């Protein structure tokens, strides 16, 4: 059976794009229910697009260390109405942050253009679902499970280990019928890594390009910044901008971030340095 998906938006990754984080978490449901959450999300998206976002990444389950799991139905209830409305209202690339096969499929049917999977299509049915959908997928590395991954991260060489993992997932994707041109690779900053591991990955980020696929980097407000500088999440903007800038200089083609306007400026400056200015 052929899946009928809405028209897909395509991403040109010859230059670096900005993926803005839109979280649909229980907080937004605390007063007044669903309607208000969707309305709030749409207003946030409008602002993000005005500020320079190229992609809106929508997640219904927090993957932060120690976060609670949500049921499949809860995740669908949170994410699908928001994707449908964004698709109706805005002409932007929509990414769905999920590792669940059913959410991937329903999100694509609702208008999502790409899958952002922190489990790199290892969850049950995910590889087959993504292959059927034929939309771009970001494969991210994680050591362990979100609930416990920060307990004692260990690698022989973090860059080599993560590279080998991603190579193996690329092979699994190709074996399942996913075109290599649909894949984006991500070392997964903060997912089962110490601060030192994260900075080794950032220093050697350009090595991930060797696989011939665009690289995504997500460091915004993460503890690699907070622990290094002793700053809580609300004080991590300058550190986040520094990380984004370094990532672009090392070849990243998508930056995932919370602070859209500031990150868009940083990307533009790094890109002018790499490719010459464009006024
Ligand atoms: C403060 C704010 C502290 C946010 C931690 C966090 C990535 C990702 C996440 C990433 C890709 C997060 C869904 C973790 N990080 N997807 N997702 N790459 N592809 N933590 O690095 O933002 S959630």
Give structural notes.
This protein has 279 residues and is an alpha/beta fold. The protein has one domain (15-273): Alpha-Beta Barrel (TIM Barrel), CATH 3.20.20. The protein is built from nine helices and eight strands. The chain has helices at 34-50, 72-89, 101-110, 126-133, 158-175, 195-203, 223-229, 237-249, 260-275, and strands spanning 17-23, 55-59, 93-97, 114-117, 137-140, 183-186, 216-218, 254-257. The chain has an eight-stranded parallel sheet with strand order 6-5-4-3-2-1-8-7. Helix 2 runs parallel beside helix 3 and helix 6 crosses helix 7 (223-229). It starts with 16 loop residues before the first strand and ends with a helix. The mean pLDDT is 93. Bound molecules: ligand 8Y4. The site of ligand 8Y4 has 17 residues, from strand 5 and strand 7.
